[in-house]
Amino acid sequence: MIFRDLEKVRVMLKEATDLDIAYAYDDLVFPEHAAFLIQFDDTNANNYFCYFHTDCLPEPKAEISTNLSQSFKKQHCSLVVKGSFTLNQKGEEVEIGFL
Question: Among 6, 39, 80, 93, which has the highest number of CB atoms less than 10 A from its own CB?
Fold first, then answer.
């Protein structure tokens, strides 16, 4: 079983964006408002991936990305922006599409 330090991610998110975690499932962490999500890197515990929602505007995206990178760096972690994602309601479930 892989240990994923959700508390560490919560602290870094809060410092960078003042947002709390709204939902976490498996290797994905969704902050409030779902403008972006964080994915754990299962090959390196100090590396994380970031995906932005397709509706996130360029200026806020750049600011959030910079703030997240700085916060993660303070904790000796790296954050790689990997792309974007969509959320689609499928009945009672939500489907995540990575682009």
Answer: 39
The residue type of 14 is K
Residue 45 near residue 5 (C-beta atoms within 8 A) = yes
- Return d(Cα 59, Cα 41) in angstroms, integer: 26
Q: Which residues pair with 36 in a beta bridge?
A: 52
The separation between CA 39 and the C-alpha centre of its own chain, rounded to angstroms, equals 6
Helix (H, G, I), strand (E, B) or coil at 39: strand
pLDDT digits (tens, 9 = 90+) for 30-73: 999 889 999 999 999 999 999 999 999 999 999 999 999 999 99
Nearest to 29 by CA among 7, 2, 45: 7
Residue type, 66: T
Residue appearing with tokens 């709204």: 22
Mapping DSSP to helix (H, G, I), strand (E, B) and coil, where does residue 65 land? helix
